[in-house]
């Protein structure tokens, strides 16, 4: 049921993106906002569901396999979108896109993060699958299973490794590049998923753990917003 749900979201988002390109090609800013919002919605909604499936046996084989598979699927279906505020910072820093457009894209990503969480809460309330039982009563699931300093360093390091790899594989054929990036993300999740969740995406972190930000905003914003953004900043300086 969960896999069918995520497949349905991928198909629906694909149709919305195609319709947006056709109908709003003469309204570039609105088109960019909606494309980024739909893409980030797919990423956040599917990851929310994957977070529940990560507890399904056998662990961690099920979660890692699904992480790899859906990362490949996102890469193939969401071309042209970053779905990550940190990924949007690079073209802004390099002058590839205007600052206002970059801000618009980041705003779309956080709007999508909130919408994805609200949508998944509605789906979970229907209790269509066993993992949905009790999902609404979890509150802050506390992904940070280490000290704040160590969590900050882990998210910073993972962000640098991820962004460096993305730069290194820019010239690889897209058909192979998506698998390399998916393999890297799966490896990072395996290495640090039990400590911080290995998210390195501010919008995704807010969608996955909003209650944690409400309860301890400074701590979680430092680890899941500032650390990955700082990692991207280091990569921009390197270039």
UniProtKB/TrEMBL annotation:
It is found in: Membrane. GO terms for molecular function: channel activity. Keywords: Membrane, Transmembrane, Transmembrane helix. The chain crosses the membrane at residues 110-129, 181-205, 217-237. It is a multi-pass membrane protein. The keyword rRNA-binding does not apply. This is AQP11 protein. The gene is Aqp11.
